[in-house]
Amino acid sequence: MPYQPDPDLGAFIKSLPKTETHLHIEGALPFEFLQKINPVQFKEQPRSWADDFKFQSFSEFEETLLAMALQWFTSPERYYEAAVAIFHKHLEQNVKYVEISFHAGIIEFLNIPGPEIIGAIRDAVPDGLEVRIFMGMLRNHYSQLMAPVIDDCVNWDSLDGIDLHGTEILPLEDWAKSLWPRAREADKFTKVHAGEFRGAHYVKDAIEFLDVNRVEHGVRAIEDPEVLTMIIEKDITFDVCPISNLKLNVIDKMKNHPIRKLFNEGVRCTLNTDDPLSFGNQLEEEYAALALELNFSKKELAILARNGFEIALMPESMKHPFIEQIDTIIGSN
Predict the structure, then answer these.
(1) Dihedral, CA of residue 271, residue 180, residue 174 and residue 150, to nearest 10
(2) Active-site option among 20, 168, 196, 286
(3) Spatial separation of the C-alpha atoms in residues 117 and 133, rounded to whole Å
(4) pLDDT of residue 47
(5) Beta carbons of 157 and 122 less than 8 angstroms apart
(6) So what's the pLDDT on residue 332?
(7) Is the alpha carbon torsion for 154, 61, 139, 181 positive or negative?
(8) Can 196 be counted among the known catalytic residues?
(9) Strands 18-24 and 95-103: what pairing?
(10) Is the pLDDT of residue 30 over 90?
(11) How far is residue 129's CA from residue 98's CA, in Å, rounded to a whole number?
């Protein structure tokens, strides 16, 4: 990626305690794992890692990602191996808290029980990192086969939350409107993907339909001042992935990313990588991109890092040391 900070900025970004609250484990598989199992096919890095590459559609992105990820994710043991490497990379970047999701489709495609996937990911969590595990499901996932699984997932003690993702072309269905409050009653946290490929009113509808206060992406809410006002009044957090948005043609140039306006308007945003297997990005590059292309100051980058801890699903006593450290950094910048 072109977002290479100078040594001073790079050291500053590294020093920030950080969170990652929008990450798909299948999309975070380290590429070297694919090279290990198929060195001929994966001799060269994905063409989507090129600086000027953009996916022409969400379908192209999804098909390309699944063609890679499904070659690895065939068992709970494979989830464990991948998670160990993924979490190690987080520790290298001074990440202290991660929310990671696995795709419910794996249960459908490979007949691997969800709790076994969750257990494998949880066994991989290293000392020094807090991890919360979500199951992500598609808007049309409530099929005859998957309905019992989806209905039962709120009873899985090891699951921390659920997320609705996939293409926004599909409508929000009544099963999700029923499941999301049941999940919260079972002490599961709930999120929704919205505002990536459809506009501000879709963000509003998704928030109201599912009664959530966390939106994955959400950036197109900037297109409607009334929706933006609602988001600020409801204290909604957007888990934003700038490089993903660029690669998926949500924006034409990083300089035009809505996060600058969202930040200025007072919307709480966090920074995340989404699917680094497809984009070739690391969390530190997301911070560097905002500094280099959108003129975020060190203080503003620190505020973004602080936002992640504010919404982290951790006890206040665990958050406090990181927030206090960041506040010291903010005060000195």
Answers:
(1) 100
(2) 196
(3) 10
(4) 95
(5) no
(6) 83
(7) positive
(8) yes
(9) parallel
(10) yes
(11) 8
pLDDT tens-digit series, residues 228-239: 999 999 999 999
Domain boundaries defined on the chain? 7-328
Quick one: CA dihedral 72, 76, 77, 81, positive or negative? positive
What CATH number belongs to 7-328? 3.20.20.140
* pLDDT of res. 1: 63
Half-sphere exposure of 213 (CA within 13 A, CB side): 12
Mean pLDDT of 250-259: 97
For residue 229, give the H/E element and its range: helix 225-233
Residue corresponding to tokens 């928030």:
207
Nearest-CA neighbor of 130 among 328, 320, 319? 319
Question: In the chain, what is the greatest distance between 2 CA atoms, to the nearest angstrom?
Answer: 57
**CA torsion, ordered 193, 17, 301, 191, to nearest 10 deg:** 10
Q: What is the pLDDT of residue 131?
A: 98
Amino acid at 66: L
What burial class does residue 249 get, using C-beta atoms within 10 Å of its C-beta: 0-12 exposed, 13-18 middle, 19+ buried? middle
pLDDT in tens, 9-21: 999 999 999 999 9
Burial of 221 (0-12, 13-18, 19+ CB in 10 A): buried
Whole-structure pTM value: 0.97
Residue pair 270/239 in contact by the 8 Å Cβ criterion = yes
